[in-house]
Every structure is written in C-alpha cells, then in structure tokens.
Amino acid sequence: MTSPKTIESKDEMTPEYRALVKQLLESQGYREVMAANLFGHAMKHIPTLAYKKLVAHQLEEELEHFEEAAKLYHDVTGKDLLNAVQSKMERVPYPESWTELAMAQFLYDRAGEFHLREYRTCSFAPYARIVTKILEEEEGHEGFGEQVVLELAKEPKNRAILQTLFEKWLTVALLSFGRPATEGNRFAIAAGLKSRDSGAVMNDFINDIKATMTACGLQFPERDKIGIAMPDDIDLSLPA
Ligand SMILES: [Fe+2]
Ligand SMILES: [Fe+2]
C-alpha cells in the first residue's frame, strides 16, 4: 500500500475523508470544551487558592485548545464547532467534590491526551500541527489529577470513595476513545488520519494507569461492569 498523502486544505479531501475530519474535530472539540466545563463547574470544590489558580489556568488552556479545533472546523465545514457539539454535553457527569474532580482529571483528561497523541502524524497536516501544540500543554493536566488522587489515597478513609469514583470515571474515559475495530477506524488508519485502532490506544491507557492504581489500592471493576466495548485481549490484571 502506498503511504497516504498529506492534505493541507479541504479542497484536496474526498467526501469520505472530509466527513472523518469533521467527526474527529467534533470529538476533540467536545472533549476540550467539556474539560473546561468540568473545571468551571468544580471550582467551588477546590480547597486551596493555589489549586484554584492552577485549575483556572488549565481551564483557559482547554478553551484555547477548543478554539484551535474550532478554527479548523470552520475552515473545513463552514460551521460553528460549539454549536455542533453543544447537545452532546449531557453525556459526561459533572464532578461533585474535590476528590471527584481529581479522579476525572486523572482518567478523563489522560484519556483525551492518549487519544490525541494518535494524531501527531495525521495526514491532515493543519490538524497534526495543532495537536502537537496542544499535547505540550496537556502533559501538565493529567499529572495534576494523578498527584491529588495519590495524596487522597494515603488516607484509608478515602479509599472506598476513590474506588467508586474510579469506576465511574473509568467508563467515561474509555467511552471517549470511541468503539474499537469499526469500519471508521479502518478507513481513518488507511487514510493516514490516525495511526492505530481505538482498541490499541485503550490498551495503552489501561496499562498506563496501573502503577497509580496499585499505589492507591484501586481495582478494575469486572469487565462487564465497565459497560464499554473493549478488545478481548485487554489485560485488566494489576502487577503484584
Ligand atoms: Fe485540552
Ligand atoms: Fe487537559
């Protein structure tokens, strides 16, 4: 197979390619604005000024990421991205405590980063460029959630609530990868839009959170309780 060619503007796209670009920008735009909404909603639960300022800063970064995606979306579709994703905002729960915000950040924001990494070499070059820029900022985000979850897990009284919130946000995070092994996945890979199937990215994400899970005494729920289509070979065991 010849390698997919690089595309710079919508005039070079086939209708199928354009539809996938539209879909991937909607999916990213949704995740960015949702992250900003989560932070804004949870501000009242943040216990220290230093953390409030940090989260406010991250909120602004998420809106800037959204803005980048929205510009590209307008170039490709002539439409408004916020309008396009507004109705999907109900899908994600809003954190109701500081503990829940940290867990959401640890899992949901990290899933977003793993998802985005697959587009660094995207054949739609303008998208590859914004993704590279966004990823530099994202690295700070999920590390923050992880650090707070680790701190909270030191208190044995927090363990049960952390496990409950872990299960809730694991499902939300895994949902954001999209269904594995679909026709859309195959076309996107063949067209060079992304490098791997969603299932492979899910697998990397699952492996990446295991060390922190072990440190916090967290367990994966039973596979059928996760309620998400996952590749059969995904390994939900934790290192001893
Ligand atoms: Fe972001
Ligand atoms: Fe983020």
Concise synopsis of the structure shown:
The chain is mainly alpha-helical and 240 residues long. It has helices spanning 15-42, 49-77, 81-85, 98-117, 125-153, 159-175, 183-190, 198-216, 223-226. Residues 32, 35, 62, 65, 134, 138 line the site of one fe (ii) ion.
Describe the structure.
The chain is mainly α and 240 residues long. The protein has a single domain, classed as Ferritin, CATH 1.20.1260. It is built from nine helices and no strands. Helix 1 (15-42) runs antiparallel to helix 2 (49-77), helix 1 (15-42) packs antiparallel against helix 4 (98-117) and helix 4 (98-117) runs parallel beside helix 6 (159-175). The protein is globular, with a radius of gyration of 18 Å. The mean pLDDT is 93. Bound molecules: fe (ii) ion (2 copies). Residues 32, 35, 62, 65, 134, 138 line the site of one fe (ii) ion.
